Amino acid sequence: MTTIRLVPLAEEHEHALLETMRDPDVLRFTRTPDPMPAGWVHEYVERFRTEDRGGWAILDGEEFVGYAVTGPIDRDGLEVELGYAVSPWARGRGIATETLRQLTQWAFDEGMKRVVAMISVDNPASSRVARKAGYTFEGVLRSMHHRGDLREDLESWSILPGELPAPHPPS
Ligand SMILES: CC(C)(COP(=O)(O)OP(=O)(O)OC[C@H]1O[C@@H](n2cnc3c(N)ncnc32)[C@H](O)[C@@H]1OP(=O)(O)O)[C@@H](O)C(=O)NCCC(=O)NCCS
Q: pTM for this structure?
């Protein structure tokens, strides 16, 4: 089992966060602006302090291996969208799946009744992560606004309370 921990994003993570966000797949599949304006990463980290949304660094020991975020948390409708990216140097070890599992548990602990992941139809690795974390594929939303002028067909995946699989025991 992958042992990672999630800690709130902070200034100390900005360098590794920038390195991760420069990865072509992160630029392709997240809302990170491309090109990234100077100072953008610092503002990005700051917004999690001022808005009702979560942002975490994923750490393996002391090493930064990715980040995870929520969209705006709907405290009335009890719904939230989760997003994640793993640093290129740490992929293929189950880190995204364990991150999504931990964050989904966090969302249910916050009282959420529906947790969502929106995934590009061209991102099978992320679809696989959602499936492994217990999410259900609901269908494809066509031509969703992604960022700037870009629109994307997005798979909608969701999970409801009681559907989260137990973590695998250490082998
Ligand atoms: C998608 C991403 C988060 C996956 O992170 P990760 O830590 O490598 O994911 P995991 O190791 O938990 O699981 C990846 C799974 O996808 C599978 N996979 C990888 N590439 C694949 C591909 N091209 N097609 C199908 N499956 C693929 C892996 O085999 C693994 O499944 P398995 O355990 O059944 O073998 C990472 O590649 C990433 O950060 N990409 C860029 C940002 C991004 O896309 N974020 C998600 C936005 S919705």
A: 0.96
Q: Which of 27, 34, 86 to mutate to test the pocket of ligand 1 (most atoms within 8 A of CB)?
A: 86
Helix 14-21 vs helix 40-50: angle between axes, to the nearest 10 degrees? 120
Whether residue 144 contacts residue 121, with contact meaning beta carbons closer than 8 Å, is answered with no
Predicted local confidence at residue 170, as pLDDT: 47
Label residues 29-65 b or e (16+ Cβ within 10 Å = b): bbebeeeeeeeebeebbeebeeeeebbbbbbbeeebb
Per-residue confidence band for 2, with pLDDT thresholds at 50, 70 and 90:
confident
Q: In the numeric block, which tokens belong to residue 22? A: 């420069």
Q: What is the pLDDT of residues 48-66, one digit of tens each?
A: 999 999 999 999 999 999 9
Is domain 5-159 given the CATH code 3.40.50.150 in the classification? no
Query: Residue with the nearest Cα to atom 34 of ligand 1?
Result: 128
Distance of alpha carbon 93 from alpha carbon 86, whole angstroms:
10
pLDDT band at residue 171 under the 50/70/90 scheme: very low
* Mutational test site, ligand 1, from 87, 129, 156, max ligand atoms within 8 Å of CB: 129
What is the average pLDDT across 125-141?
Answer: 98
Whether 96 is in the pocket of ligand 1, judged by its Cβ within 6 Å, is: yes
